[in-house]
Amino acid sequence: MSSAIAAAGKPSGSASAIVGTSARGYHTLKIDGYWCTKVTPTGEFLQSSQFSVGGRCWRINYYPNGMDSQTAGYISIYLKLDEIATEDVKAMFTIGFAKRLPWPWACTPVSVFGGEQMRGYPKFIKREDLEKSEYLKDDSFTIRCEIVDICTKEARAPKFVTVPPPQLNQHLGDLLKTGKGADVVFEVGGESIAAHRCVLASRSSVFNVELFGAMKEGNTASVIRIDDMEAQVFKALLYFAYTDSLLETEKEDEEAMYPHLLVAADMYDMERLKLICEEKLCEHIKIDSVPTILALAEKYHCNGLKKACFDFLSCPARRSAVVSTDGFKHLYKSFPSLVMELISMPSPP
Q: Where in this chain does the record put each MATH domain (predicted)?
């Protein structure tokens, strides 16, 4: 027996590893118009926009009057995994007022998220305590949720080849910037802008008809004059046509740019750009801007933007403030049926 073991030589071996990794991030949620949110019944919640930490999608559920009868005097805050997970997701998280320092992670337990499960604070704060606190200012307060997404996975073999991300959009953007090979020129607002017929025709049915529908053979150096658009707006339209992304704009100019860009997107039948502008304008709905944005939504059939305006105006206090503005008077002159629809909108219970 011993001779047989000796003849077998050295034992073979193998090894593997379990690698623990984590991704950390945070999301701030501003509750603007706190007193309006108080009309939300117990058990019903308002939801944050979707955000990502660790490659996973999350949302925060805000219950202004608690999530059940036992927490009716409190504000309840919950974190929810906003995706279908094939396995349980482990994470540590804290939720607190943005002004507070984050709690030490060593004191934070690991929570498991899966299916429709939520984790959070049923008695985040008593409403009466919040209303007396420094956290509620100008009818708003901000909370911050910090998340550490924990995952363990089997170690992978070394990777010897790294494939770079796609660069087509960058290359097409460079083509627009340099004008190399351009075969059409647009005169817009006193500026000459060179472009490429094939690129524009592939991105817009309107450009396709304009550039190829009635184009005469050999007319490759034509100049097309556009009188009803600013040069900067047309440049942003072309940039999106080439790169499928928005042209970077100064923060203070965004609110003024998006309405014009939405009109341009509608004019050239670029639906995705139009929806992006709708989404951006939803972030700029305020007392002084909502009449103009609502008129824009009605004229250009932007249903999502119109719903966002109506949701903003569902608060009676906001609606009263908007009615007294000059913008509302112009809205009434241009779209009286829309104003009647707004006036007849039922108030929250």
A: 24-147
Rounded to whole angstroms, how far apart are CA atoms 307 and 287?
16
**What is the share, in percent, of the chain residues with pLDDT greater than 90?**
56
Check if the beta carbon of residue 291 is closer than 8 Å to that of residue 331. Answer: yes
CA–CA separation, 1 and 88 (whole Å): 49
Tell me the pLDDT tens digit for each residue of 230-247.
Answer: 999 999 999 999 999 999
pLDDT over 50 (residue 106): no
Instruction: Give the CATH number for residue 349.
Output: 1.25.40.420
Q: Where a domain ends, among 209, 237, 265?
A: 265
DSSP symbols for 330-345? HHHHH-HHHHHHHHTS
Report yes or no: 18 and 155 within 8 Å, Cβ to Cβ: yes
Task: Please tell me the predicted confidence (pLDDT) of residue 343.
Answer: 81
Specify the amino acid at residue 192.
S
Domain limits at 302?
285-349
The C-alpha atoms of residue 291 and residue 326 are separated, in whole angstroms, by 9
